[in-house]
Amino acid sequence: MIKPSPKNQDGKLYQDMPDKASFVLVRRKGKIHGCFIQNNKLMRLTTDEENGRMEGMICIAKVVDIVPNINAAFLRVHGERKCFIKLDDLQNGHNLSRPGKNFAQGDNVLVEITKEPSKGKEASATCNIRLEGKFCVASFGSGNILYSHKITSERRDTLKQELSNAGFIPQNGIQIIIRTEADNTSVTADEITKEADVLGTQLMEFLEKAKHRNDYSVICGVTPKYLEFIRSISKKKDILDKILTDDKAIFEEAKQYLAEQLPEMAEKLHFYEDCLVPLNVLYGLEGKLSEALSDKIWLKCGGFLYIEPTQALTVIDVNSGKYDKKSDREETYFQVNMEAAEEIATQIFVRNLTGIIVVDFINMAQKEHRDTLLKALTEFLQKDDNPCKVLGFTRLGLVEITRKKTDKTIYEQILV
């Protein structure tokens, strides 16, 4: 339990040690936000719905509508949430209400949520539930063994012979896909068969459990994003100083997870109690979240960024603003651009900007300055688990960046 004084010995608000970071977990407007704060600056943000994360969840869904004209059906799942499924996918699923019969309105089916709801669209689901291991993937099927097309033909023939010699046959109703990782000759048939048996057994247990559960039951939940973030940051030693929350339910969930999965991180978790200074006020979270949603970000030098997301891409404009310390205009622009590059990387990570990102830096005449800027920007953007590709300057002097979409943007996380 932590009861920090609102002010330290210098009379300043409590802050973390330089270069150390805190991961602050708060409940806000029906959502759980995980704020990774370093040097009093929001560096990363995770957001979970209070009623749980959907993508990856395996659960019992009820068919509420079937629309043959668009080859679709609509389901209701845990938390009274709706999702979409293709009709031919549904008809290949397990009818829990009337085994062996075609699906009709009101029937229950075991599904996996494959996509979160986004921009007004329903979540997506599939009956083709897949459990992934290191060397193989198990799904419902006809008992076949399939191989990744990236495995060489020679290695595929060797694996087929080794699995045959080991007498491996997938369980009835289970299909096994051998993953690319098995292309490594050091991987043995024994490792593959053991993993395939575990995954296949687990999948059949899910189905058996679903036959005896109530409507909308969750058969296999999903780890919240804030716990996944703690796991990822734990690999970077000595960066995270503490994990703080003032919510008892979040604290207990995190405590159990750390005890089971990351015991070395357990001592960093603290429950915050201070009736005078709430946790979100102590760290100024409302202001930090508001800044992360703002289209204008000020730089320390007096320049600023203007960030405008559109349907097709995100545009970032760099402006010199109030900065005018150098008599040499080229040097002024270079200094502003260099500071902007680091801030752009931070904003891309915090806002989770993905797809095509176009940056309009202040024009510089010297090629050496442009090359230095590109190198610095590339290095800043490699500090994330989802790194960006910097494609360089276009003929118009714009810098193109691409980043794979792995989650919702901050605008969808907070405002939707």
Which class do the helix and strand fractions yield? alpha+beta
Distance between the termini: 33 Å
How are the strands of the largest sheet arranged?
16-17-18-19-21-20
Helix content: 25-40%
Our Rg estimate from Cα atoms comes to 26 Å
Strand residues, percent = 25-35%
| Average residue-wise pLDDT | 88
Low-pLDDT segments, ≥5 res: 3-18
Please summarize the sheet with the most strands: 6 strands, mixed
Tally of DSSP helical segments: 10
Principal-axis shape equals globular
Number of strands: 21
Structure notes:
It is a single chain. By secondary structure, this protein is α+β, with helices and mostly antiparallel strands. Helices cover 29% and strands 28% of the residues. Strand 17 and strand 18 form a beta hairpin. Helix 8 packs parallel to helix 9. The longest helix is centred in the C-terminal third of the chain and has 23 residues, at 329-351. Mean pLDDT is 88; it is low at 3-18.
Set out the fold topology:
Layout: E1 21-28, E2 31-38, E3 41-49, E4 58-67, E5 72-77, E6 81-86, H1 87-91, E7 108-115, E8 123-126, E9 130-132, E10 136-140, E11 145-147, H2 153-165, E12 174-178, H3 189-210, E13 218-220, H4 225-234, E14 240-245, H5 248-261, E15 269-271, H6 279-282, H7 285-293, E16 296-298, E17 304-309, E18 314-319, H8 329-351, E19 355-360, H9 367-381, E20 389-393, E21 399-403, H10 410-415
Parallel strand pairs: 1-14, 6-8, 11-12, 14-15, 18-19
Antiparallel strand pairs: 1-2, 2-3, 4-5, 4-7, 4-13, 5-6, 7-8, 9-10, 10-12, 16-17, 17-18, 19-21, 20-21
